[in-house]
Amino acid sequence: MPVTPPRALGPIRIEKIVAAPLFGESPKGGWSNEIRAEDSIHALIAVHTDAGIIGYGSCFTDGRLVEAGVKVLEPFFLGENALEPERVSEKMHQNTFWMGRGGTLTHTISGIDIALWDILGKATGLSIGRLAGGRHQERVMPYCSLLMEEPGLMAEEIVRYREQGFRAFKIGWGPFGRRDDFRLDEAIVAAAKGALPQGGKLMVDAGASDAYWPNGLKWALRTADMLAAHDVAWFEEAVKPDALEDFITLRKSSRLPIAGGEVLTRRQGFIPFLTQGAFDIVQPDVTKVGGLSEQRRIAWLAQDFGVRYVGHGWNTALGIAADLQLATALPNVDLVEYIGGSAYVDQIMATPFSLDADGMLAIPDRPGLGVELDPDAVARFSPVAKSLFSRE
């Protein structure tokens, strides 16, 4: 019998894009100039279309900058076909080169791009994972991302989240490497390691992208030896983020994998780090790097160079949702980052994430991102939350 071809899906036009900065419960970052709860470091994005479909995304930067970025980008997205996320996002990148690449506009495009993929999934009835590569795995392990504390408190924090079902942990920032006390650094790691569940994983993040990071390559080399002795799974941001040669030397010398890349943006920024062997594990952030379109390109490039991809997920529930979709669309992705105790992760969705008995997260196979925001919950953290959900 002849097969009737499916009806073509016509263009769905972008009518407007709105940004909603999140305030009130911003999580501490361990930064030298610490984040306050009332600071805006994340914003949600909504792309409204003439078909009534709304796509959602997330940006990692001050919400005021995102609001300004949306206004600047408006001539390049208004009236565009929302079903073409890669083309529309690249159009925005290409036409704003002269305003600076990799800053506010790139972070803003990140949220828009995620939202466009969400729309494409909703319009086709497919999850982003299926659209972006297929279903390589059905679930993935989240690692609970925690700030470092003094040894006793560090162990208590690990136990607290271990009891919630987490089996993998990353500890970072805080006092580590900032007090010129190598014994304290090791004591923190030993305390965390001792509090892990049976068979649990521990990763360590120095946070060398912090303002005025005081340590150099020799500190990183010595610390890498200590972490390897404690069977730490990887050492993240061990040297300043632009210290390419130091990363290369550290990776060649270290007995444990070296991770980094969370502050790099756009695929072009990753090329020297991948081609010159700076990382064992590359960590682009989907809410900074240019969205899912850029994240997917970087992840494939990394795999071609034998570098493991693990997305940097210190952002929001929508950032985790995007990372989950990419985790299934790519082979050999077994971890996603999950901030422990963040309201912007645990308290803004209609159905919060839930770990299974093995400490794993199921990867949604519903249209788009596969998750739904709770308008009332979002309104607690943003005075303009209504604009995300209403076409008015």
Automatic annotation (TrEMBL):
Keywords: Lyase. Coiled coil: none annotated. This is L-alanine-DL-glutamate epimerase. The keyword Lyase applies. One of its GO terms (molecular function) is lyase activity. Pfam families: MR_MLE_C, MR_MLE_N. Residues 151-257 form the Mandelate racemase/muconate lactonizing enzyme C-terminal domain. SMART domains: MR_MLE.
